[in-house]
Amino acid sequence: MIGFRLSAERPPDPRRINDVVVQRLDHVYEVDPELMRDHIQQHDFPAWDTRRIVDSRWEHLAWMHAHWADSVVSGEELISTEE
Amino acid sequence: MTSTLVTDPVIDELVAICGPDNVFADRSSRVNRARVPAPFPVHRWAEHVPDVVVLPTTAEQVSEVVKLANRHRIPVVPRAGGTGLTDGAVPLRHGIVVDVKLMNKILEIDLDDRTVTVQPGINMLKLNEELQQYGVIYPDDPASYPCSLVGGRIGTSGWSLIGGRYGHTRDLVISFQIVLPTGELIWVGDGGGRKVRKSSTGYQLKHLFMGHQGTLGIVTEAVLELVPRPEAEFAAFFSYPDYETAWRSTGALAKSGLATLAGVVLFDEWKLDYLRRDDEAYIPQPDDVRCVVATAMYGTTDEVRPGAKRLMRIGKDTGGAYLGDEISQGDWASRHDRYATPLHGRLRDGQVVPMSWHCEDASINWSQLPQVRREWHEIVARLGDNFRIFDDWGMFAYTNAAFKPWGDYLTEIDVGIWEQELDDAAWDAWVTAKRDIAAVAIAHGGSISACHGACRAGEVDLVPEELGGGWDVMKKVKRVLDPLNIMNPGKYLLDEAYE
Amino acid sequence: MSSTERTDGDNGTDGFVAEWRNGAYNCYSSGHKFCREVCPVMQVTRNEVHTPTAFHANVVAMEKGLLDIADVARDYVHCTGCGACELRCPNTLFTGDFYRFRTRTVQLVKAARALAVDQGIHQPGWQRWVEETSRQKSEPVLGAEVPVSQEHVRDWAAGLDLPIGGETILFCDCEGAFHRTSVPRAAAKLLQRAGVEFGLMREQWCCGGPAAEMGYVDRAREFAKHNVDDWRAVGARRIIVFDPHDYISFTEDYPSYFGDEYDFEIVLFVELLAELIRDGRLPLTHPVERTVTYHDACRLNKRKGIHAAPREVLRAIPGLTFKDVDHVTQWSYCSGAGGGLPIERPDLTAEISRRRVERAAALDVDTLVSACVWSERPLTEQRGALEIMDLLEIVALAAGLEDER
């Protein structure tokens, strides 16, 4: 589906990763909501916004590599050619 | 909120110099130019509000403003990006803020002699976006790379993340035009030729007019170095089970002699704990990842690839485990614009609060790092015991010297402060802690600040001790060049020059 | 909800500060200012009071009693609502998803403007604009001389034989309906060609987004309520929009007004278009011999992360030479057309557009393609030797629905 539906933007309930971190969407860590109870409260956060930020972060980092150099040498590749 | 020096006739004169659209005396313009990200007593904001703000467009206008200030004995505070981690751009005595952001033009790109001439209000990332088409880059790369400005980099004598390879601001700025505290315009460099990098003519004035935090003038134009745009980048992050091993490995990597090595960064255990709070790269790391060392290389592919192999071997042989491409490449790319974010802040009960980031930096020799680290954490722990608004965010040690990055380290301890709850008692405790942190640096043969400047409250008290006889020379220079104490008065204890 | 409803006493300032102080401190405490060089207004004025940093610091200063909304109301005019600042902010980009707490400068600017309006501080151009919109039900996009009206809101569709109502509605924004009518015409023809059934509203009003952006919150809600009632009345379930500003209104403002009962599917035209082309339902058979670059619409690229679909569409057009500038670089690009800026600071909009066109011209292209109908007027005014086309206009050429002029 390409359209926006409000009801589809509610992320699933969190599952616990460790004492202070939970996860709602795959590969996206979130703070344990209990830790944002007393002094600062979380925003209403639709799923599209989480995805937008995560994608933008990686796109920004890729942009930064390209900004500084023509190519990036991979350490994993160097290790694999070494042995 | 204001002093009484800036009268309507003075504002009329400023308008005559800078034009009616570039002089601002309204409350918003002034209140919004009172602070920088350095520790700021937010509860005493009004004490730092300037009387009037000007946005000049030419060196001549800057010169005329400074001459006017001398005639009327009004303090002048220069402001570029306002991103400094010391408080050079914070007015201590109100007065005129000279904001250079409108002076942001590229004046000349010289691909023959490899220079670019710019006005001081240009940002490095924006400059490099323009330079990219010519295959060159201006590699001055602070954590504020996407927003700090060339003028501020000179005024603070900044440090660059990749300075081990390309040098820091002082190495990358070839010459510049500066308005002296009495209003005269001069050029300083190595000797007189504006594009000459090395000269033995006369005194070496370029260094004198860098890092003075606005106490010796205002830069109005600069000639900058152009280096070939790197063909290849390599970043490798290694993990270690303990600090001792990571520290020794850091030393071995930095002493490798690899010419493309741009920097080595040591993260201590506190820093790892802090990163595990919210950083996706560190949350999944196993418990035995206690310390991390980051390395990066830049240059031609022919140099970087074999150099990288050698670097990987040194990391492994000294006890490091490669953390993988994703964290190495991803975390490294984020370090070109790595400022802490406030929600890192935690109270001791674990609750999240928005804390401001205060980075105490010093230059420390490699041999002294473990002891300094121990003493600094103790100071911050005591602070946190007494006030819940302070949080220890851990330490980094970055290779510090240009081109030969093995001897000393930009050593920083990051402290979160919950500014919403800041009051006089907490501020005084903080200033005391800063003085204690600086004292540790001096006691171990280091320097109070590697890159921010040492004029912040607390640490500034120890500048005379650190500089010794040099402090007397510094005061004489200030008094000769700025006889009426116009440029950024009160900063760096330099009022003592007039006693 | 207008800010007068949020609080009692003190003309709403206390409520405003209470609502925004944590967000403001989140900016103030970090002081990164990574927003500054991507902000289209700041790139032109270089004036620190126009920065997103100042927009947040003002809240802290209001809390400390240093500033009042009257001191800063005019500063808050200087925002196109492009969203570059809040995306580029590390508090969004690096930790916003983790804490479910991100920088919301665009919302803050709207709230500050609403606070000003509540205290009787009006920007004359905006006040007139909203009054005219309320009177005519569409924005006065044709100036004072040529009134817009309900009578003419469907004139753009003359001869296309479009039904009223149905499950799927094509919503046409004010600029398209009255000024750049070639865009909605292209949209309708493309849907017809691809066999998508759709109708128009019985009575379409402005989406209300501009009134909300200018601080006239109650007016904005009136428009929204009318439009939603109209959709319900004809049994609509799916709304297609081509204007990114409408897309923001329908996916962010309307849900905040109506809550869970707001159950419409909102479809962005360019995403539907990419799907229709991909699925072979809309053959692009006519070569378009142009060299183009694409202007990322701010509200798609920065505020919604939508940048792939328009590029996919452009790459599917035969004959076209596409010289792309990546969407991250374009976080700092803008036409200056948003957030009411062209009404209050037309000089700034013109300069922002001039710079955008200059960047396109440097690529040696003949056409700058945009996917935002609002951007196309200021860009056209600065176009020089370039032609400014909407993405739908150029796709209509490729589909053989229009001829090259």
Automatic annotation (TrEMBL), chain A:
Protein name per the record: Uncharacterized protein
Native species: Asanoa iriomotensis
Automatic annotation (TrEMBL), chain B:
Named cofactor requirement(s): FAD
Domain FAD-binding PCMH-type residues, every copy: 46-229
Family annotation (PROSITE patterns): FAD_PCMH
Enzyme Commission code(s) on record: 1.1.2.4
Superkingdom, taxonomy of origin: Bacteria
Family statement drawn from the similarity comment of this UniProt entry: Belongs to the FAD-binding oxidoreductase/transferase type 4 family.
Protein name per Swiss-Prot or TrEMBL: D-lactate dehydrogenase (cytochrome)
From TrEMBL, chain C:
Keywords, ordered alphabetically: 4Fe-4S, Iron, Iron-sulfur, Metal-binding, Oxidoreductase
Signal peptide (from-to): none
Record-linked PROSITE patterns: 4FE4S_FER_1, 4FE4S_FER_2
Pfam families from the UniProt entry: CCG (PF02754), Fer4_8 (PF13183)
Iron-sulfur in keyword set: yes
Protein origin, superkingdom: Bacteria
Database matches in InterPro entries: 4Fe4S_Fe-S-bd, 4Fe4S_Fe_S_CS, Cys_rich_dom, HdrC_iron-sulfur_subunit, Helical_ferredxn
Residues annotated as domain 4Fe-4S ferredoxin-type: 70-99
Name of the protein described by the UniProt record: Disulfide reductase
Species the sequence originates in: Asanoa iriomotensis
Classification of source organism: Bacteria, Bacillati, Actinomycetota, Actinomycetes, Micromonosporales
